[in-house]
Amino acid sequence: MIISQNSNDVYYAYTRGRFWRWDESVHVWRESHLLAQKFGKAKTVEKRLTPEAFLTSDEFIPMDDYELPERMLAALRDAKPCKNAPIEPVEEEPSLDVPPPCICSTCTCGGCKEECFGNCRSCGQPVQECNSYQTEGEKHLTPAHSEDVAEPFGNIPADSSFDFSALGELSEQAVAADQQFDLHYGAAQDEYLISCIYVAKMHALTAKAGRYGGGTWTKWYESKGMSEGSARTMTQNGDAFKSATVADLKLLPSISRKDLNLIARSGCAEQLTAAAGDSQRVQELLAQLKAEKWGTDPKEVDYGTLYVSRFKVLRTAYAAWRKQCAGLHGCSYYFPDDYYAFTLANEEWLDDYALYMALKVANGMKNWVEWDKPYRLRDKKALADFAAENEEEIGFWKFVQYKFAAQWQAVKAYANKKDVQILGDIPIYVSADSVDAWVGGALFELDADGGFARVAGCPPDYFSADGQLWGNPLYNWAYHKKTGYAWWVRRVRHALGIYDLLRIDHFRGFDTYWAIPADSTTARTGKWENGPGMELFDALEAALGKLPIIAEDLGELFPSVRKLLADSTFPGMKVLQFAFGGGDNEYLPHNHVKNGVVYPGTHDNTTLTDWWENGASEKEKATAAAYLHLTPCKPTAKEVAAVKTAAARTALLRAALGSVADRAIIPMYDWLGLGAEAHLNTPGKLGGNWAWRAKAGFDSKALAAQIKAECAVYCRCNADVQNVKELAI
After folding, report:
1. DSSP 3-state assignment of 573?
2. Which residues does 112 contact at the CB level (< 8 Å), separation at least 6?
3. Rounded distance, CA 112 to CA 117, Å?
4. Tell me: the pLDDT tens digits for 561-619?
5. Which of 502 and 556 is assigned the larger pLDDT?
6. Contact at 8 Å (CB) between 672 and 694?
7. Which strands, in side-by-side order, build the sheet including 596-599?
8. How far does Cα 62 stand from its chain's mean position?
């Protein structure tokens, strides 16, 4: 039989002893692990439940064959089961001559109040007196803050003293969440977590209403006596534990709120919940988490420490996840539907990536060029044998990508809902020690031994007297042309699924690029070669449509590079720290163009504060001071010296915002007025880069109001500048 789900028009089927889901993207039936799990849970409550009866509930609509395309029916006949499933379908359990279990075990009072508040059909007792009412029953009550789940606790009063009218149609849900919060806030540990779940729900509801319900979010948590910091912490905790059941929470041993906050921040709530009931295991997980080192400086990322610690936690999470999936429905491992959907959608790169990472682990994380020849040259039999022997390790790397993808898409969706776009950086080249290079072959310039013939970099410039020896393999552009630039189409398509806008680093390399012999020790020995030019971008646009790309057009630009930029119609970059060296510089604001992006400085530049105090020459400072109206037109050295750093920084920020360029991108460290400690990247320097992070509490309402007001002055803010005090972060 084939059915459709009321809520989302997804088609499911039951045949040959298995549940199936129709994958519309590729027109095939996939075994539905999710539906099988739901049926298994339902059957523990109602032993006589059959798959057919399960699929004729109010949630599903049975479909006749004539209502369905023939290809769907034909595909069902040819559907292949999960490779880990047994050859024969799992047999249905025989009917039992016993009365069905107590219905109150699953009732959430969503549509059966008359039964819930009457007598139990099985035991005959009033529901409130049934032994399973507060024990077994609560196992099925999930304190989630999704809008399609009934409220899991208590009787909800009909109204609330708090005014939720600004939330419109969401106000009823907010009243329910408010009352549930009041029931549990200030009680024991499990009650605290439940209250966190409702704080998270209130945060989600107010956010959905727009601008946090016109200030409703702030007013609400303040009415409960919570500070902004406490509300944020509880929201974080609630989001982390939202999948836990009441029974899970009650089985957790006593955990301090400080430790609960650590668990939530570390993303370890799921494996902790999975261990609920095993107090020793929970304590072991907690001890492991607290023992891991994550760095000691709150303003600097310790990548070396994180690299070691994060994998310990991730592998613990993976082990817990596999344990949850082990042995379900007769399979050795029965993973969730969304996992299989993810691996299928990304198999083009994911299988190679996971195999590559497993091989790196097996080879002590050495560069793939140092592996044994069969693995280095991708011998099919050798790779197949390795994959068969290392299924669990390969699975770990797929799991990491699966979880990251879900978390990243949640972040992106959250940002996009608030009209925030994410600008991603896509480097022109790939790393030499990467899966791309390992599988690339003819994509790159190779020597007679299959190694890289030449590598990428840039000639001596403003940042480095020896140039920059990046070491990335260079593309075999002739081969890319023969394939219609198919690899680039796939790469950009994937990036556009992750970001809203793309900044292509080293854009000039598509016109002419600096090619350096692979055995060189500096970039001085390189020479210019011609790139693909507009052929590449024409191919990309033909395949993907209009491209939301920003071109990093910095460095030594030949006339041909400028022509390529003009022909592509991509906006280029204007950097203010390059503007004041003298003459009618193209980076001076009066020379900017509308189709452009202005920056005070890029990640390679230092901060504005450090630039003014230490980086700019006396000539640059004098030119900038006069240009920005900080001094007379021809200032003396004394007049320039009298200019305060804060005043210069503010003037430079306003020059960026006041530019005619369509976009102005201001780094957060410049809004904060930080110095050299926040300099992100020093070109040519090995180590110590990209380590700065904002100190906790940087995102104050005062700063938000300042940013909003500055942007509004230059018409870079849609909201009314008069309302800046109500802005919530």
Report:
1. strand
2. 103
3. 9
4. 999 999 999 999 999 999 999 999 999 999 999 999 999 999 999 999 999 999 999 99
5. 502
6. yes
7. 572-575, 596-599, 663-664
8. 37
Alpha helix segments (H runs only) across 326-390: 337-345, 347-362, 373-376, 380-389
Q: Could you identify the residue written with the tokens 């479909």?
A: 63
pTM of the model: 0.66
Residues 6+ apart with CB under 8 A from 701: 725, 727, 728, 729
Please give the residue that has the higher pLDDT: either 133 or 246: 246
In the chain, what are the domain boundaries? 2-98, 107-280, 421-570, 572-698
**Number of helical (H) and strand (E) elements in the chain, helices listed first:** 29, 15
Strands 11-15 and 2-5: antiparallel
**pLDDT (tens digit, 9 = 90+) per residue, 652-705?**
999 999 999 999 999 999 999 999 999 999 876 777 899 999 988 888 889 999
DSSP 26-38: TTEEEE-HHHHHH
Average pLDDT over residues 381-409: 95
Just list the catalytic residues: 505, 552, 604
Q: What is the pLDDT of residues 12-52, one digit of tens each?
A: 888 877 888 877 656 778 888 777 777 877 777 777 777 77
Using an 8 Å Cβ cutoff, are 154 and 165 in contact?
A: no
Angle, CA of 413, 416 and 419, to the nearest 5°: 160
CA gap 495, 505 in Å, rounded:
13
What HEC string does 238-277 produce?
HHHCCCCCHHHHHHCCCCCHHHHHHHHHHCCHHHHHHCCC
Tell me the helix, strand and coil percentages in the chain, rounded to 5: 50, 10, 40
Instruction: For 684, list phi and psi in degrees, rounded to 5.
Output: 85, -5
Terminal-to-terminal C-alpha distance of the chain: 50
The residue type found at 17 is G
- Give the DSSP letter string of 718-729: -S-GGGGGG---
